[in-house]
């Protein structure tokens, strides 16, 4: 059933470290052979052996309208004939910047980069340059890309692989990264009190997606906002996952909390390599060439990435009903999963906000990295494979969020729920 994937993985391991270009894809934590994909359309992915899967990762977020969304494909095809890169400014970059500034609250300017990592790296450099301070606070289990300063108590693949301290990240760099447990405001207050006038920024996933999906508890983000205001610290929302997904204006809009800087990723390029950092003029104009905080990129604002993103974001902007539909579909799936797990007699904890969700197998609420780590991740592994065999592609790690697409139909959701029932009965 997976013979071509097996053969491809063998070949890949000869020329690509670990056989993959990004660690989580390797199925390290769930075991087995990673499935090599060939094509995808709408809600489905097809692997090299011709197996079909209902997709719940959607390229880790950007495929919010499903794969190979026709208007995006057409736009890319048309623009590819104009050139794949100019290395000079284009009107298209202004159009997408204007569109995003109109969609997202509290931002006046945006700088395009090529990944979420670059976006977060730039946001921290900008916060340091703007405040003249060196340290920043991040949360255990949150992931902000693979820049050195973020690889301290990181989530996603770092958590999946159980890497405690990343070789290559120097102690000197790591000492400026302070960490606190997610949802633990007193721990953050203590760090701020212990490091007066030294903290440039607090960076947070407003809804965490890199230790499974974890919701901010009431008062947590509000408390961070107040703490930042009282201590002249910049609050950075890493909306690489939540941006344009939870709402047109992202987490800031849906939770009603202002961030000083916002980072975006993947979805801005509709799956092309894009990230961005955005905020008010007063801060953003510290970036070069307006200011001295240097940041650059030969391929930044790439025309193919920009037209793909512009086409997707315009669709989201013009059709608010998409968010309502995503909510309904996600609610329907969660209800069905709860019934499936409940009838199989397994303990579970499902977290969901909008079209982001995840299931941990634990009898207690999952509110931070330590509670996520304590869940029955052995059961998750078996569940993952039992679902894969039944044609459902879940994130290959309990430390990742599931992402819904609006291409999912009720039939797809019913098929997923039926698969979950059968899978649980087979493995429990
Ligand atoms: N921030 C968050 C919240 C993310 O989820 C990710 C990647 N999943 C990143 C930053 C890094 O983005 P990229 O992989 O595009 O560098």
UniProtKB/TrEMBL annotation:
Alphabetical list of PROSITE patterns matching this protein: AA_TRANSFER_CLASS_3
Any single GO CC term annotated in Swiss-Prot or TrEMBL for this entry: cytoplasm
EC class: isomerase
Subcellular location, record wording: Cytoplasm
Keywords, alphabetical: Cytoplasm, Isomerase, Porphyrin biosynthesis, Pyridoxal phosphate
Record's catalysed reaction(s): (S)-4-amino-5-oxopentanoate = 5-aminolevulinate
Modified sites of kind N6-(pyridoxal phosphate)lysine: 266
GO BP terms: protoporphyrinogen IX biosynthetic process
InterPro entries per record: 4pyrrol_synth_GluAld_NH2Trfase, Aminotrans_3, Aminotrans_3_PPA_site, PyrdxlP-dep_Trfase, PyrdxlP-dep_Trfase_major, PyrdxlP-dep_Trfase_small
Needed cofactors: pyridoxal 5'-phosphate
Listed EC numbers: 5.4.3.8
GO molecular function: glutamate-1-semialdehyde 2,1-aminomutase activity; pyridoxal phosphate binding; transaminase activity
Pathway connected to this protein: Porphyrin-containing compound metabolism; protoporphyrin-IX biosynthesis; 5-aminolevulinate from L-glutamyl-tRNA(Glu): step 2/2
Segments passing through the bilayer: none
Family, per entry: Belongs to the class-III pyridoxal-phosphate-dependent aminotransferase family. HemL subfamily.
Protein's name according to its UniProt entry: Glutamate-1-semialdehyde 2,1-aminomutase
């Amino acid at each position: 059933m997976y013979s071509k994937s097996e053969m491809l993985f063998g070949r890949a391991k000869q020329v690509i470290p670990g056989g993959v270009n990004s660690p989580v894809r390797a199925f390290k934590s769930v075991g087995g052979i990673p499935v090599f994909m060939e094509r995808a359309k709408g809600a489905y992915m097809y692997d090299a052996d011709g197996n079909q899967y209902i997709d719940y990762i959607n390229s880790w977020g950007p495929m919010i309208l499903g794969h190979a969304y026709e208007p995006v494909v057409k736009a890319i095809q048309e623009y590819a004939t104009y050139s794949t890169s100019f290395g000079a400014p284009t009107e298209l970059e202004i159009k997408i910047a204007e569109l995003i500034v109109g969609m997202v609250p509290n931002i006046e300017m945006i700088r395009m980069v090529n990944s979420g990592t670059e976006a977060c790296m730039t946001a921290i450099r900008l916060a340091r340059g703007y405040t003249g301070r060196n340290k920043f606070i991040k949360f255990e289990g949150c992931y902000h890309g693979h820049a050195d300063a973020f690889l301290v108590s990181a989530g996603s693949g770092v958590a999946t692989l159980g890497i405690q301290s990343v070789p290559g990240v120097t102690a000197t760099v790591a000492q400026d990264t302070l960490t606190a447990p997610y949802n633990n405001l007193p721990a953050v207050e203590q760090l701020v009190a212990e490091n007066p006038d030294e903290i440039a920024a607090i960076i947070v996933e407003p809804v965490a997606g890199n230790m499974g999906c974890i919701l901010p508890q009431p008062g947590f983000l509000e408390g961070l906002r107040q703490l930042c205001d009282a201590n002249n610290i910049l609050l950075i929302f890493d909306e690489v996952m939540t941006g344009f997904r939870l709402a047109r204006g992202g987490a800031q809009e849906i939770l009603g909390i202002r961030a000083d800087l916002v980072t975006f990723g993947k979805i801005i390029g509709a799956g092309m390599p894009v990230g961005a950092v955005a905020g008010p003029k007063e801060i953003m104009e510290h970036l070069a060439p307006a200011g001295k905080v240097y940041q650059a990129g030969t391929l930044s604002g790439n025309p193919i990435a920009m037209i793909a993103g512009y086409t997707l974001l315009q669709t989201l902007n013009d059709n608010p009903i998409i968010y309502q539909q995503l909510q309904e579909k996600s609610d329907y799936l969660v209800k069905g999963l709860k019934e499936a797990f409940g009838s199989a007699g397994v303990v579970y904890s499902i977290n969901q906000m909008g079209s982001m969700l995840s299931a941990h197998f634990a009898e207690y609420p999952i509110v931070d990295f330590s509670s996520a780590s304590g869940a029955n991740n052995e059961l998750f592994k078996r569940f993952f494979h039992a679902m894969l065999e039944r044609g459902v592609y879940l994130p290959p790690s309990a430390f990742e969020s599931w992402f819904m697409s609006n291409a999912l139909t009720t039939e797809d959701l019913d098929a997923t729920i039926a698969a979950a029932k059968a899978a649980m009965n087979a493995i429990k």
